[in-house]
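User: Could you check the structure of this?
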Amino acid sequence: MRIIQLIFLTGIVSFSCTHGVDTSPVEARKLLAVSTIISTLDTVLTAEVYQGQPLGKLIGDSLAVVPDAVVRISSEGREVVLTYEPSNRRYQAVNPFREAEDGAVFHLEVVSASGDRVTAQSRLPPKPQVPVIDGEMIGEVHNPSLRSFKFLSYWENPKYLDIALSLNNYITGEPIKDGKTFVNTDHQYAPAEGIREQKRCFVTMGIHCAHWALLMADLYRATGQESYKERAVQTMNFLTYHLQPDGKMLVGVDHEHEKGAWAFNQFWFSCHIKPNLYLIEFLSYFPKLAPGTENHILSASSGIRQVSYTAKQVSFQATKTGSARIKLSFTPTEILVDNKKTSSDTWRFDHKTGLLEVRYPEGQVAVW
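Assistant: Sure, the predicted structure tokens are below.
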């Protein structure tokens, strides 16, 4: 597991809410908020500069942006001036600090056109030590940021299972707001379990339901307990009620109990595309749910493209070494990579479920 080194530099002019510090009235327009992140892994530095507005004034972030400030970041005698980019309303510049050593000190200075000035300082933390974990890693964690529970499937360590169960207990058993947990069954599709987004936006959303259903699937794979499977399938089934005739996915469908400003009978790109991807991934956990008369690639650990299906063949281009789970309507007899037959120990077919599990190198893969 690799931890990205990040430094957060934030500056606010002439204002403090720290306990014991006296504050004096300051004109709103003299209040600046600056946010920037410095990482030795980023090729571009970015910064955002906002100007305060009078209390009671409604204003969007685009109108609060300060486009004419001078933004400088310096370290170890090297300085870079960031240029304002109107398309994303940020200041940016090529990152010259990618070779910075541990402990390097960075200085931020922002000067507005009216002369107001913000300064901040931060230090690059030491590189994190490589964690030592008992057990053996199996498979490939190709998207570890997706969810913490994902590690359950890849690490043979009971500690991870304990942590995952504890996290799930927090989701399902800890009152978050008004005595309610993140799990919601107070809707017209009860008893299906929906998942609320957060404390402030305490609304059931399809994307979070799908996310949690995958967590339940991970727990089922790790423990074999049928209750996790039942909850996973029920919640993912609830997600299907978000699907509209035109193929779009609603943000939320709980119209009867969440009317008004928080009834998300809307379409958001992030809440549309992700649930569809989660649904596809979900089928790799429970291949019996996939159509038995069709061929489908349910999951792949590496990038694949040029996928082709026929009645008795599935083929695709593997961009690198990986593995895939494929639901087949036929019994495979051989697998070719770049027209060469592969060893029988690189694939396994379950006649009961129609699931093919195959490992492959980079190249053109064909299942016959």
